[in-house]
Specification:
The structure holds two protein chains of two kinds.
Chain A (H helix, E strand, L loop, with lengths): L5 E5 L5 H7 L5 E5 L3 E2 L10 E2 L3 H6 L3 H13 L4 E5 L9 H9 L4 E6 L6 H9 L4 E5 L5 H8 L4 H14 L4 E6 L8 H11 L4 E4 L10 H10 L3 H10 L1 H14 L21 E4 L4 E3 L10 E3 L5 H13 L6 H5 L14 H8 L7 H13 L8
Parallel strand pairs in A: 2-5, 2-10, 3-4, 5-6, 6-7, 7-8, 8-9
Antiparallel strand pairs in A: 10-11, 11-12
Helix pairs in contact in A: 3-4, 10-15
Chain B lengths: L10 E3 L3 E6 L2 E6 L10 E5 L1 H7 L8 H12 L3 H17 L3 E3 L1
Antiparallel strand pairs in B: 1-5, 2-3, 3-4
Helix pairs in contact in B: 2-3
The chains are: A alpha/beta, B alpha+beta.
Chain lengths: 375, 100
């Protein structure tokens, strides 16, 4: 052998990333196969009943999904997250999964694991996913089913999880910290870390429904932790605390605030990845579903969305003085869940101020010892 | 996996991988289990490897591929044959090509 012809790299070390970022190439996307779910969690921002016929009729067909995936691959996409709702509720999930894999995508699946069958295991063993990410709603049957609001779901979850683990399939566990499971969030962490030593994360911040359903939004608000509870939880978790402190040190600097700018978007939305909803609507990120910020892939192309629509959205501006004098210049914006997408979900305005987010950010800043001027 | 690469044999990309061109770079993504150590690994080919890979059409044997490359790059056929044997041995070991 005269030289090494192949270079083997872990995906995070892939040398092409820098070039792709420079060119604003697309490197990943998320596809929500369905908004339907067999669970009925109160805190969920998307779930519709499993038998919702209208929701089912709106879902993309397999050929439509494959067409979008082909376009994404042409833009350079290397990995894909399949999510929902509960993606395994679709009987054609295996066809979608394998179809995406065969396009040369590294595929992750986000699921509640309750619908995992031996056929899924055979599929994942033969064609391994990048990972299976599973949400743990509770460490006990009582708490789990209080959250899922479906009797029998805990046993189904444990069965699915064990099938995956027994088959040696890479599983990652995560949790939402909400009122209904706060009392055993440490148990959930211990449970999860026992199975996935290198990875566990929890999220204490719930955002509202994409369908703006007022009754369901009220349920989400009831599940939200208070700012004090969030801070207490984050301070008790070493990894989380360190991450926040690191973010605090590197991000809370006066220069970060674009004080002379009225652009709405300063986040990374639309840079490198995108989301496709169950009905084929293109979104720049998971939460951004304002009518002016979505693009219908059933009547347009991904190329058009990527090259022309995203820049238009990212160029959106506001002259809302209240926003420009508060959130836009807030030095602790990095501790806040505020972004145009979440503001829209909460207030119907991309530049709306969200009192709850503000209180969480200030509580975090106080806990981290930040004493700078805050609006 | 022991395998003696023969210049008289025909090789083609395995169905257990997907080869893709991303921004001009050839990358090989494992599809089926058993290729790579984790599911997070992808592979790239260098320029020489890419030129050889592009000619693995499942019909042309390695000796013919070497002749074609020698003509195109004005290089000694013997050197090209060594490169080809090296690459194919490496890819065969990784299960990324099969002997037809």
């Amino acid at each position: 052998m005269t030289e090494d012809f192949t270079t083997q790299q872990e995906i995070q070390d892939f040398s092409l990333w820098d070039r792709m970022k420079e060119k604003r190439a697309c490197y990943s996307f998320t596809i929500e196969l369905t908004a339907r779910c067999n669970n009925n969690c109160a805190h969920c921002y998307i779930n519709l009943p499993a038998g919702d016929k209208e929701a089912k009729e709106r879902e993309l067909s397999v050929p439509q999904i494959m067409d979008i995936a082909d376009q994404a691959v042409r833009l350079g996409a290397l990995w894909c997250n399949i999510t929902g709702g509960e993606p395994l509720i679709r009987l054609d999930f295996p066809e979608v999964y394998l179809g995406l894999k065969k396009k040369g995508l590294l595929v992750s699946v986000m699921t509640n694991a309750t619908l995992i069958t031996r056929d899924h295991i055979d599929l994942f063993k033969k064609y391994p996913p990048r990972d299976i990410e599973i949400t743990v709603y509770g460490a006990t049957r009582e708490t789990y089913e209080t959250v899922s609001r479906r009797p029998g779901s805990y046993d189904a979850f444990m069965r699915g999880l064990n099938l995956l683990l027994d088959a040696g399939i890479k599983v990652r566990l995560k949790a939402m910290a909400i009122h209904s499971n706060l009392h055993e969030i440490q148990k959930i962490a211990e449970f999860s870390r026992a199975f996935t030593k290198d990875y566990y994360r929890f999220d204490p911040q719930l955002h509202l429904r994409m369908d703006h359903n007022p009754a369901r939004n009220e349920e989400i608000r009831r599940e939200r932790l208070t700012p004090e509870e969030i801070v207490r939880l984050e301070q008790s978790d070493g990894e989380r605390k360190n991450a926040l402190e690191k973010g605090c040190d590197t991000l809370i600097v006066p220069d970060f605030c674009k004080t002379g700018c009225n652009h709405l978007f300063h986040c990374g939305t639309g840079n490198g990845d995108f989301v496709v909803g169950p009905d084929g609507m293109f979104r720049l990120c998971m939460s951004l579903c304002h009518p002016d910020c979505v693009y219908d892939l059933k009547s347009g192309t991904l190329e058009d969305a990527w090259q022309h629509f995203i820049p238009k959205v990212r160029d959106m501006r506001t002259n809302n003085q209240e926003f420009l004098k508060t959130c836009r210049v807030c030095p602790i914006i990095n501790l806040c869940l505020w972004c145009p997408a979440h503001a829209d979900l909460e207030t119907g305005r991309l530049d709306g101020r969200v009192e709850y987010f503000c209180r969480v950010a200030h509580a975090r800043a106080k806990a981290l010892g930040y004493t700078g001027d805050q609006p | 996996m022991e395998h003696e690469v023969s210049l008289d044999r025909v090789y083609s990309p395995s169905k257990d991988i997907v080869a893709r061109d991303v921004m001009g770079e050839l990358i090989i993504v494992p599809l089926a289990s058993g290729i790579g150590n984790t599911e997070d690994e992808i592979y790239t080919l260098n320029e020489t490897g890419r030129a050889i890979w592009d000619r693995l059409d499942g019909r042309t044997n390695l000796r013919e591929i070497a002749k074609s490359l020698a003509r195109e790059f004005d290089a000694p056929p013997g050197e090209i044959e060594l490169d080809i044997q090296g690459l194919i041995g490496e890819l065969f070991h990784r299960r990324m090509v099969i002997a037809v």
